[in-house]
diguanylate cyclase
Amino acid sequence: MTFHPPTLLLCSVLAMAMSAGLMTLFAFSQRIYRGYFHWTAAQALAALGLGLHLLRDTHPAVLPVANLLVLQWPVLLLAGLRRFYQRKEMTLPAAFDWALLVGGYLLWLSTWISQADLMWRIAAFSFAAGALALYTAALLVRLDGYATSAGLKTLSVALFVSCGMHVWRMVHSVIVRHDPDSAQVLLLAGAVIPVMLSLVMVYLALLLTYERTQHDLGESQRQLRELANIDMLTQVPNRRHFHELAGRLLASPGAAHGASLLMFDIDHFKGINDRFGHKAGDEALCDVARSLRDTLRVGDVAGRIGGDEFVVVLPHTTVEEAVAVASRIVDPLASRPQMPLGLSFGVVRVEAGESVDAALHRADQALYEAKRQGRSCAVIATGDNENPVFAESMPLGLMPM
């Protein structure tokens, strides 16, 4: 079977133009990201370069432009990937990409200007194209997130295969440089390689866009969960999420070893808002939450359950140890430079099988008793909801307001 080279080259041009057209159509009908139009431009310019190759016999002067347009594909692809993954740094700067393109192009151009043998010109072009493909693939492999991206893995494999084909083309052109028939085969191979990459890129552009959309969707869902679970001002779990976490903790087998619950609020918090404004009140809440986070262990559960009221569940902790935790929470607040803060604590031991609401109710009674006994102290409550027994208040060294 004989092949008609101009017809095959024309089919290659049409295939690349179609791929560029499909990517353009997708861009105007679906959401895309930064860098996508670089990929589309790479496809279109490479198609134009192959199209100019149709004129190389009648207009040899177009060959330098045609080869430059074909050679640019990996570099413009890489420029798009740099924008697509703008938060992930690549090993080498973008200037190196273009320097490599210019160097490879000048290598081929020197053989063309010197009117070297066709096979040497093919070898020089193949060397430049293979080096660019290998360089691009190597950068992708080192990109953060490569291991989890099917799109990047597929693209790197396609580039490595392209590099291998260019190496074969280069070596073969040197070995059979005096065979005219082989020259035609090698010229056709030079058109087939970019077409193969172009068709693969249509799929990969859609795959990378899909992966990015899935990532953004997952990030949005994470942010929504955070908004639903975390108090945005203090960055501790809100009331609903605290109940979930505390219920899960108390239902775990380890809860049999006992847990204590602290409920506390800021003394005279309304006065802070009235005298100094709500900004000062917000700062006080944030400082309390910061001290809380700095004090607690990994397994402890804290939450803001309303206004200036916070609650903490301390697994494997006696009430005496819980009072010591309360003292550590208070220490940085009592020496606050802008305004010392006082905290009042209600402390209870969570009974076996007791619900979170029942323990909170008993701690709330103890907190009320702490306020009745003068604030800036901790009161331990024992007994049940109907007949609580309050211990004597324990001052925590706070500066009363």
Summary: Residues 278 and 381 are 33 Å apart (CA to CA).
